[in-house]
Amino acid sequence: ERARELFQEGHRLYDLRRWGDNASVYAYSAPEIKFSYNDYKISDLVFPIPVDEINSGFGVKQNDWSGTLPR
To answer: DSSP states of 33-52 as a string?
Structure first.
């Protein structure tokens, strides 16, 4: 049950140590891949905020937040 609930959260090795089980750890090396990509425009990477969204916030009144903090 614990193995299913904590899957991929990094607790397995510590559980094996605590329980005294042997753990096999295999480290596989990945091939080194080098690449570069220079054919892009800034508009491909940045999504602009529509002007209507920017202008719709004017005239909005800020609520008083000082009494809403937990004690």
So the answer is: ---------GGGT--PPPHH
The span from the CA of 57 to the CA of 52, in Å, is 9
Structure tokens at 15: 């559980």
Tokens 């054919």, located at residue: 39
Encoded tokens for 27? 């480290």
Question: Cα–Cα distance between 34 and 40 in angstroms, integer?
Answer: 18
pTM, two decimal places: 0.26
Helix, strand, or coil here: 2? helix
What pLDDT tens digit does each residue of the chain (71 aa) get? 777 777 777 777 777 777 777 766 666 777 788 888 788 888 778 888 888 888 887 777 877 877 777 66
